[in-house]
Automatic annotation (TrEMBL):
One of its GO terms (molecular function) is metal ion binding. Residues 1-20 form the signal peptide. It comes from Richelia intracellularis HH01. The keyword Protease applies. Belongs to the peptidase M16 family. Residues 55-97, 148-249 form the Peptidase M16 N-terminal domain. This is ZINC PROTEASE. Keywords: Hydrolase, Protease, Signal. GO terms for biological process: proteolysis.
Length: 508
């Protein structure tokens, strides 16, 4: 299927073109008219409380995808309480006073009792009184058994599944929390009811069990993962002030110390109408969506205050090269990161192109040189926007060395490829190839209701308007070889570089 056909499928316009298309036609046919038709199918509105909705009609199939985008992530957590946003995402699936419980009136005092016992356990642990701790844990376990008997496990998920819903899930990043799933078109009102209730009437049940789940998740991702440990150390070195320096999942001790009150306070501060944007893409009527949104989400009370944001400490300009070295039971890895501006900077498309030139697939410079020709690496990739892109971030390169090779050889080879971008203009053929790849990736992201919903929300919240999503193709087309040279020269400097070396322990 050609790029143009993919685009037409996305917006329900396949019937308007001939089935046979070729690459020449893709490159010569203006895409903007079709994007304009998509824009005509968009509707947006805000409720009186400040909650915003973006709707894209697509009547090709009787399905609808929903994404609730909360403008809060790891960067919004206070120091000492990392992991709150991710923890809250887990608990948002636990239900309400009506969903997820057999009898909330019986459950509520048990939940409060668990909180009291947990607090006392922490106090006696700090005082070094094991006998008291043991006695309290016995009481805690007995209370938790009683509370668990009242819980209806995964009731929200069962309701969604029985109504034909699919892909119920959520993600937390440095700067956003997203909740999403898809329903048959005739279940629009059910989605309105379920989604509004779980944030209007949440119950943070099974908090202590979920804490253990998250701690195990951290062990798998970080503590027992050499590259996970390396990435945590690396980003904590590259950043000194900005909260990008902290892991989204949270530090181990912070997670252990979090309480249900911490979750509630964070929720009350950040899960406010003004910070929630919802995308609905599929077989819906905008007027129907608007009327139902007023009924269900109009119940949220506006805070009439700033968006509950902490003051974000901006990262000062890096003045000297930084280095992280870890020795663990692992194959050698090499990391190299450079500070770059946010998604809203005019040079963002240039960084996109640079990342693709160096590491987009088997035709990229890093793969051809380090993997195929020199056989120094098993993997050699890079990308912009680490660990997020709402604020100034990193262009990160990472290389897994091949057996018998060293990170120093890899570092030298990577440096040579980066320096070429600083000293030689990219050829017209190579530049056009990566632009074609960039267009294809963008259009593939729009090739589903869910993909479209996710992208619309990202651009709406981060750039101020979902319309900027449809300007990306023109922005990429406008990038020149001189732009690549200029940005490479200003970005890839020794003082702006952070290096990470993951070396094998002796005997590994």
């Amino acid at each position: 299927m050609t790029l143009l056909m993919i685009l037409f499928c996305t917006f329900g316009l396949l019937s308007e073109i001939a089935v046979a298309q070729n690459k020449t036609l893709i490159n010569s046919t203006p895409i903007q008219p079709y994007l304009d038709q998509a824009i005509q199918k968009m509707t947006e509105f805000s409720l009186e409380n400040g909650m915003k909705f973006i709707i894209l009609e697509n009547h090709e199939a009787p399905v609808v995808s929903f994404v609730t985008y909360v403008d809060v992530g790891g960067v919004d957590e206070p120091d000492g309480k990392t992991g709150l946003a991710h923890f809250l995402e887990h608990l948002a699936f636990k239900g309400t006073t009506l969903i997820g419980t057999k009898n909330y009136q019986l459950e509520k005092p048990l939940l409060e009792r668990l909180d009291e016992l947990d607090k006392k356990i922490q106090v006696f642990e700090e005082k070094g009184k094991p006998d008291e701790v043991s006695e309290l844990k016995t009481k805690f376990d007995a209370t938790e058994v009683l509370a668990t008997r009242i819980v209806e496990q995964n009731e929200l998920g069962r309701i969604v599944e029985q109504a034909g819903g699919v892909d119920l899930n959520a993600t937390t990043s440095t700067e956003a929390t997203r909740y999403f799933y898809s329903f048959p078109a005739n279940k629009l009102e059910l989605w309105m009811s379920l989604e509004s209730e779980r944030f209007l009437d949440p119950v943070w049940r099974e908090f202590h069990k979920e804490k253990n789940v998250i701690l195990e998740e951290r062990r798998l991702r970080v503590d027992n993962s050499p590259i996970g440990q390396m990435l945590e150390k690396f980003i904590g070195t590259a950043y000194t002030l900005h909260p990008y320096r902290r892991p989204v999942i949270g530090y181990n001790q912070d997670i252990r110390n979090l309480t249900r009150k911490d979750i509630k306070d964070f929720f009350v501060t950040h899960y406010i109408p003004e910070k929630i944007t919802i995308a609905i893409v599929g077989d819906v009527s905008p007027n129907n969506v608007k009327e139902l949104a007023k009924v269900y989400f109009g119940r949220y009370q506006s805070t009439l205050q700033p968006k509950g944001e902490l003051e974000i400490n901006m990262e000062p300009k890096q003045e000297q090269r930084k280095k992280v070295i870890l020795k663990l039971k692992s194959q050698p890895w090499y990391l190299e990161g450079y500070h770059r501006p946010s998604i809203n900077h005019p040079d963002d498309p240039v960084y996109n192109i640079i990342g693709r030139l160096l590491s987009d697939g088997r035709t990229s410079r890093l793969y051809k040189s380090l993997v195929e020709e020199q056989k120094l690496a098993l993997t050699a990739k890079g990308f912009s926007g680490y660990p997020g892109n709402k604020y100034p971030n990193l262009m990160l390169f990472y290389v897994l060395t091949a057996p018998g090779q060293s990170v120093d050889k890899v570092a030298s080879a990577l440096s040579k490829e980066i320096n070429l971008l600083k000293t030689e203009l990219v050829s017209k053929i190579e530049l056009e190839r990566v632009k074609t790849q960039a267009r294809a990736e963008l259009l593939r992201a729009l090739d589903s209701n869910m993909g479209m919903a996710q992208k619309l929300l990202e651009y709406e919240v981060k750039t101020g308007s979902w319309r900027n999503l449809f300007k990306q193709i023109d922005a990429l087309e406008a990038v020149t070889a001189n732009d690549v040279l200029r940005v490479s020269q200003t970005t890839f400097t020794p003082d702006n570089c952070t290096v990470g070396k993951l070396l094998p322990q002796d005997g590994y």
